[in-house]
Amino acid sequence: MKKLLILLIIIVLLIGSYFLLFQSKHTQEEVNTTNTTLEEVSAKLELGKALYYTHCASCHGENLQGQPKWKTSLDEDGHNYAPPLNGTGHTWHHSEEQLYNIIRYGLTFYNENYKGKMKGNDQLSDEDVWSILEYIKSIWPESIQKKYKTMTKH
To answer: Where are the domains of the chain?
Structure first.
């Protein structure tokens, strides 16, 4: 039964990655201009999704929805709740470099006195962190993705 469940999860992840490619508007033209194949894009999103579920979902939610009180209150330890990463929060207002550093090193990278729960994931490789970030960005609504691309081109 456990093997069947794992197989089902893998199949769902593969199908989800296929649809994510089209949701995030990766066209063949875009892929060709970066010398990246659709299979490589799909593999990167698949890796990012798996790593997200392993390292991020416990706080930011399985659907990247964050915690309900992320804007309005603090948790029992006096820390901010995890914000949504699905485009409904403030995450997309940060540069790729900032998001990379937060995922990799935590918020202490920007505030050495930070005492919260976002400690970072320094055990991940650079490729792993970029894959998580690509997965997160692929979930954002198309309108947010367009704004982000415009914002980050400057």
So the answer is: 2-152
With beta carbons less than 8 A apart as the criterion, state whether 21 and 41 touch: yes
| Count of CB atoms situated within 10 Å of the CB of 135 | 25
Helical H segments across the chain, by residue range: 2-23, 28-33, 38-55, 57-60, 96-105, 126-139, 142-152
CA 98 vs. chain centroid, Å, equals 13
CATH number corresponding to 2-152: 1.10.760.10
pTM: 0.74
Name the residue type at position 41. Answer: V
Crossing angle of the two packed helices 96-105 and 126-139, in degrees rounded to 10: 120
Quick: pLDDT tens for 1-13: 666 555 445 554 5
Residue 28's closest CA among 42, 13, 14, 11? 42
3-state secondary structure of 148: helix
